[in-house]
Design a protein that fits this description.
Elements (H helix, E strand, L loop, with lengths): L8 H14 L3 H14 L2 H19 L6 H12 L6
Helix pairs in contact: 1-2
Length: about 80
């Protein structure tokens, strides 16, 4: 089955970036993202969307952490010993 979607440029860019970074075809990545989203119950789905939007908004405002800072925070929070 074939469906054509008009994605906002921001979403298309994120989808392309994720596909490229994982070495997958953009169509395969879109299917994976849709499958994940549709597998969640309604409450989890909408909470995930809110969290994603908050993250995008923070990123646009320049409010984000480096990978090293994130790993250090998770190590401290959960008693892990991950490395970047």
């Amino acid at each position: 089955m074939s469906i054509t979607l008009d994605l906002p440029p921001k979403i298309e860019g994120l989808l392309r970036q994720r596909a490229e970074s994982t070495g997958q075809d953009i169509s395969q990545m879109a299917i994976a993202v849709l499958t994940l989203g549709l597998s969640l119950d309604d409450n989890d789905f909408f909470e995930a969307l809110k969290g994603i939007q908050r993250g995008l908004d923070d990123f646009e405002r320049g409010q984000f952490s480096s990978l090293e800072d994130f790993i250090a925070e998770q190590n401290q929070k959960y008693g892990l010993s991950l490395e970047a």
